[in-house]
Specification:
Elements lengths: L1 H26 L3 E9 L9 E6 L5 E2 L4 H12 L5 E4 L12 E2 L2 H5 L11 E3 L3 H4 L7 H7 L2 E3 L3 E5 L2 E5 L10 H9 L5 E4 L15 E4 L28 E5 L2 E5 L17 E9 L3
Parallel strand pairs: 1-14, 2-4, 4-6, 6-7, 9-10, 10-11, 11-13
Antiparallel strand pairs: 2-14, 3-5, 8-9, 12-13
């Protein structure tokens, strides 16, 4: 009986330790990952562009209150980006949370982002919530952020084509394609989910996305279990090179479901776009 109680106590302590570590990891400052992207049709004479990709803010308690987001904004600004891209899921509607913030509170820290060509965002499934509605766009606009919903804009040497949320039926590939074709220069597709990548026309060689949280809870020796994707683990994390197209998936900042991260630390990417290496 005594041995059983000791084993039970050890299991409880192990569980508490894992939960504590998972919460600590979810609340830590994100890792900055860096990648140089050589663009074949980069405009002649155009300077390289430094672009930050950030996603899945999931502003909610306990792990991502506005104060944490404000700290991360400072981290982004310190990199002196030319452009900031936000790949959706700014808000949070999960049930396991200590506090829910409204759109004004969730977006307020983003007003401090500084980039030569501004900030561009798309919406994710959490931004539409359970009732297929969103009040984010006007608040993002108030913070100086351009919201793309199956539309495209030119920023510096790049055209950014922003897809609306696939999972709520808002994505319109034909509309996105028309908008992007109307603008010159190399095009980058920004989407909350990487799941739009397989059906995109071949003229789009790069998709930037989030949504998967890189698995969020990744058991040691087992690896990712789910990516919340229709394609299984195909687009779970990082740079995925496929014939004719690269897909870059960031782990994001916040969490969904449980406010825990194990084996999948928060991150964002600093991308340097430049002409093709010779």
């Amino acid at each position: 009986m005594k041995r059983f109680l000791l084993c039970l106590l050890a299991l409880v302590l192990l569980l508490v330790g894992m939960l504590g570590f998972g919460l600590w990891t979810a609340m830590r400052d994100p890792v900055v990952r860096r990648l140089t992207i050589h663009v074949r049709d980069w405009p002649k004479g155009a300077a390289p562009m430094r672009v930050v990709l950030i996603s899945d803010l999931h502003v909610a308690g306990p792990e991502t209150p506005p104060s944490r987001l404000a700290r991360i904004v400072g981290q982004v600004n310190a990199l002196r980006p030319d452009l900031v891209l936000i790949a959706g899921d700014i808000e949070q509607y999960r049930r396991v949370t200590t506090r829910v913030y409204d759109a004004e509170e969730a977006t307020a820290p983003l007003a401090a982002l500084r980039a030569r060509y501004g900030v561009i965002a798309v919406l994710g499934n959490h931004d539409y919530g359970r009732f297929d509605k969103t009040d984010l766009p006007p608040w993002l606009k108030k913070q100086g952020i351009t919201v793309l919903r199956n539309d495209a804009v030119r920023r510096g040497a790049l055209t950014i084509a922003g897809a609306d949320d696939l999972y709520h039926g808002k994505y319109r590939e034909n509309r996105l394609d028309r908008a992007a074709r109307a603008l010159p220069g190399p095009t980058v597709v920004l989407s909350h989910t990487p799941d739009i990548a397989p059906t995109l026309p071949a003229r789009y060689p790069l998709v930037l996305a989030g949504h998967t949280h890189c698995g969020q809870i990744v058991p040691p020796l087992i690896g990712p279990i789910t990516a919340s994707s229709n394609y299984g683990l195909r687009y779970v994390c990082g740079l995925i090179r496929e014939p004719g197209r690269d897909v870059l998936v960031t782990a994001g900042i916040g969490t969904s479901g449980l406010p825990l991260r194990i084996g999948a630390v928060p991150d964002f990417w600093l991308l340097t776009f430049e002409g093709k290496a010779r």
